[in-house]
Amino acid sequence: MIIRNKLCIVGLVIVIVLFLAGLLAPLIAGDPYKRDMENKLAPPSIEQPFGTDQLGRSLFSRVIYGARVSLFVAITITTISMLIGSFMGTIGGYFGGFIDDFVGRIIDVFLSIPGLILNIALVGILYASFGPSIWNIIFAIMITDWAGYARIARSSVLSLKEREFILAARAMGANDLLILFKHIIPNFISGPILVLTTLNVGGVIMTIASLGFLGLGIQPPTPEWGQILNSGKSYITTAPWIVTFPGLAIALAILGFNLLGDGLRDALDPRLRHLLIK
Fold it and tell me: Which range of residues forms the domain containing residue 124?
């Protein structure tokens, strides 16, 4: 089914290319920190395919190395959020009662707060308290990102725990841990959670870039797409390539993960389309 979905294949190719670009950055791009003030704000050319920035640094190198930074941070955040959210949602949905009410209210609180606003506030607090760090970004986004996974995990567990095969396992003497790890978790991890994780990477990349553009994300000179956009906004009329290429990289990454996630959703269960809409 996935192979027949042409858009999914396009998304997969985009994601693979981005991963390879980040992984092979030292081989395909030069030093992203090297300055050449004599060639600052140089337009795209054969020597500099993406041109240079205001400090004469190769924009091609910075965008390629930016893929490595953005993808590492986005996948780290998505993985941690998925694990925390899945755990919280599974515990609440399976045990029910007071535990489910408590988990459900926490989920509702976090889903009711605009994510980017809370991210900005948390990053600002962490920046003022501990100084700039990539882990500030990871922690701030993870705090708001886990609730979506918890909601999906909880709803999946609520529908699964009363199914016949679960009741049969319980009747045969299986304990809660065995039921959870052998029968329930594999069923929703391989379906809605996998799809949501893939779709969510693009959103996390956008959040990272937004924080970087506001000056609250990964700090210079480390190359990161949003931060490159921020550094080039003053030159948008004289050197538009500084904002054009990192902007295209962000759009391409989000498109790739969204197409891949949509393809997985249609292949695993088309009914997930309405379930995964936030």
Answer: 6-28+55-275
How far is residue 192's CA from residue 151's CA, in Å, rounded to a whole number? 11
The domain spanning residue 251 has which CATH number?
A: 1.10.3720.10
* Per-residue pLDDT tens digits for 97-137: 888 899 989 999 988 888 888 999 999 898 888 888 888 89
Q: Between the CA of residue 223 and those of 28, 207, 220, what are the distances in Å?
A: 16, 16, 7
Domain assignment present for residue 45? The answer is: no
Structural contact between residues 86 and 193, judged by C-beta atoms closer than 8 angstroms: yes
Helix axes 194-213, 241-268, angle to 10 degrees: 160
Domain count for the chain: 1
Residue 50 has pLDDT above 90, yes or no: yes
Q: Which residue has the tokens 């399976």?
A: 94
Share above pLDDT 90 across residues of the chain, in percent, rounded to a whole number: 48
Predicted confidence (pLDDT) per residue in 20-38, tens digit: 999 999 999 889 999 989 8
How does 231-257 read in b/e, with b if 16+ C-beta sit within 10 Å? bbeebeeebebbbbbbbebbeebbbbb
Domain presence at residue 39: no
Whole-model pTM above 0.90?
A: no
Using CA atoms, how far apart are residues 127 and 103, in angstroms rounded to an integer?
29
C-beta of residue 51 within 8 angstroms of C-beta of residue 242: yes
Question: How many of the other CB atoms lie within 10 Å of CB of 178?
Answer: 13
How far is the CA of 111 from the CAs of 62, 71, 129, 146, 150, in angstroms? 35, 24, 26, 10, 10
Q: Does any domain span residue 36?
A: no
